[in-house]
Amino acid sequence: MQTAGAAGLLAVALSVPAMAAEKPSFDCGKVQAGSIEELVCQDAGLTKLDQQLAEVYAQAADKAKNEQPPMLKAMQRGWVKGRNECWKSEDKRACVELSYQTRIAELQAQYRLVEMIGPIFYACNGNPANEVVVSYFKTEPATLIAERGNQTSLMYVQPSGSGAKYQGRNESLWEHHGEAKIVWGYEAPEMTCVVKPQ
Fold it and tell me: 116-195 is classed in which CATH architecture?
């Protein structure tokens, strides 16, 4: 029995230097047992995502210095609360991983931290005044920001048999061969939109 215990202690001792090198952006010594933060501390993949988010957040904060009203910190606090709700999920790790990936992509798109295609102007339902302006971002997962009037929607790429399909909170865009099917708002009718010549 002692041999198994000694082997276990040796395994822990050998893994400590590796763990020390990879730390999340918060103090693992202060997290609650069983919390989502503890899961992040114990998982190398999630730790890496936390580090990546910390870097992207710092870049976004630099760009948001003169933002009025200042939204970034409040949004980040809200995101942390949302991530911590993953304890309710059946697959906690998958929930946390997706939470990090979408937040990183969101910040990269909102603060223009990655390569972008656009803006592309779409005229919808045959009316040039019914315009949706779209910027595509090379995030992981891929994102776009669509603007219509004074409203903005961040959308994430979805699996699609053909073309590129993006989904936001109440908006969607499915682009195929230069034509886009756009739904703007909860249960709104689908619009057929084509790229406007510039």
Answer: Beta Barrel (2.40)
